[in-house]
Amino acid sequence: MNLLNLEVNQKRYIKILCICILLVFIIIVVYYASLLTYKPFNLEEGTVIADINEQDMNVHIDILEKQSSKVEIAGWAYKEGENIKTINSNYVLCNEETGKMYILRTRYEKNINVPEKYKLSGLHSRFIIGNLPTGRYDIYVFYKNNNNNILAKTGIYLDV
Q1: 49 and 14 share a domain?
Q2: Residue 22: which region, alpha, beta or left (left: phi > 0; alpha: psi -120 to 50)?
Q3: Taking residues 12-32, what's their average pLDDT?
Q4: 48 lies in a domain?
Q5: Which of 34, 153, 44 lies closest to 92, judged by CA?
Q6: Residue 152: which pLDDT band, with cuts at 50, 70 and 90?
Q7: Is the pTM of this model over 0.85?
Q8: Residue 75 belongs to what domain range?
Q9: Do 108 and 152 fall into the same domain?
Q10: Is 1 a member of any domain?
Q11: What is the largest CA-CA distance in the chain?
Q12: What is the pLDDT of residues 106-129, one digit of tens each?
């Protein structure tokens, strides 16, 4: 077998290596650029808008921390009497002046501040406010567990 005895063309190797490094760099730039864009949120048909403590919704924000251009939101959301089965909830920011809504990337985690039955109801989001229009934003939770479509108001505001 002569596979191990192949000669490596140094110029070709350097070109391939440069192209690979460039591709990785482009992927990283595109990923971080996507963190600076906000996906607009449009209400789906059949979505119920719930004010604080309506629709048996329990939503709470444990952490709202703004550090220069970064914001962290952590809390929980569950509907009283329903088990947590399919977690598909997100934080949504609603500009008070324009009414425009933006959905945030949200990850799900266990939360120790809720009853044992709802331990998986924790929500956590970190984002950069660089391209977010200035104003005051209401923080909502878009709750889509167990075929519910509920946009629940948290009563907490974020000033950008």
Answers
A1: no
A2: alpha
A3: 90
A4: yes
A5: 153
A6: very high
A7: no
A8: 41-159
A9: yes
A10: no
A11: 73
A12: 888 888 888 888 888 899 998 888
How many structural domains are present in the chain? 2
Structure tokens at 34: 């996507």
Residue 33: what pLDDT?
A: 76
Q: Is 43 helix (H, G, I), strand (E, B) or coil?
A: coil
Q: Are residues 24 and 89 in the same domain?
A: no
CB 84 within 8 A of CB 115: no
% of the chain surpassing 90 pLDDT:
38
Window from 40-44, 54-58, 74-78, 85-89 with minimum mean pLDDT:
85-89
Do 135 and 101 share a structural domain?
A: yes
Residues 109 and 125 in one domain: yes
Query: Is 129 a member of any domain?
Result: yes
Measured between alpha carbons, how far is residue 92 from residues 17, 25, 70 in Å?
A: 42, 31, 16
Same-domain pairing of 15 and 68:
no
- Tokens 């660089």 belong to residue: 130
Q: How many CB atoms lie within 10 A of CB 66?
A: 13
CA gap 74, 63 in Å, rounded: 5
> Is residue 122 within 8 Å of 19, Cβ to Cβ?
no
What's 55's DSSP letter? Answer: T
Give the residue among 109, 139, 140 at the shortest CA–CA distance from 122.
Answer: 109
Quick check: is 3 in a domain? no
